[in-house]
Amino acid sequence: MNTAVSVDLPSPTPVVSTRHVPERSCVACRRKRPQGEFLRLTKVEGVWAVQTGNRTGRGSYLCADAPACWAEKRLRRAFGIQAASLSAQFQTFSPNQGAPTRGSSRPTPSPLPLTSVSPSGGAMSTGPTPYTMQ
Fold first, then answer.
1. d(Cα 88, Cα 50) in Å, to the nearest integer?
2. What domains are defined for the chain?
3. Are 26 and 65 a contacting pair, CB within 8 Å?
4. Residues 117, 95, 116, CA angle at the centre, nearest 5°?
5. CA dist., res. 38 & res. 8, Å (int)
6. Which residues are 24's β-sheet partners?
7. Non-local CB neighbours of 96 within 8 Å, separated by 6+ positions
8. Cα angle at 90 between 86 and 95, to 5 degrees?
């Protein structure tokens, strides 16, 4: 005797694939956000600087749209003696310049000047200056 048993299986739910978005923390406010909403500072040869393009070396992330995170006092924990020079660079930075646009998958390059900072905290010249002495 062959009897067929009918079983109603639930229809498979469609799998929506969402792309993984890396999450990082700001070194000043400790807020977690998607990586594209941060500026990345890189430590190369003992000097912290905003680096665009090839990102090698130890990196730290800082909120691109929060001027409160750019205050020297908030940067001291992560950058030590170099916090003053980094804070001065960020104070001339407009919050809308470095923030990525909605829907963009890549961060916008930072418009900050890429000056080197000596390990003692003083700025070093990276090229000809616009001021000449006569």
1. 13
2. 24-102 (3.30.1230.10)
3. no
4. 10
5. 50
6. 33
7. 65
8. 155
Distance of CA 113 to the CA centre of its chain: 16
At 76-85, the pLDDT tens digits run 999 999 999 9
Rg, C-alpha atoms of the chain = 23
> pLDDT for 90-111, tens place per residue?
887 655 554 433 334 444 444 4
Q: Which residues pair with 59 in a beta bridge?
A: 42
How far apart, in whole angstroms, are the C-alpha atoms of residue 39 and residue 23?
A: 13
- Distances in Å between the alpha carbon of 107 and those of 20, 34, 68, 134? 15, 10, 20, 42
Nearest to 123 by CA among 82, 92, 87: 82
- What is the rounded CA–CA span in Å between residue 106 and residue 94? 19
Which position has the token pair 């130890």? 58
Cβ proximity of 57 and 44 under 8 Å = yes
Query: Look-up: residue for tokens 């594209």?
Result: 36
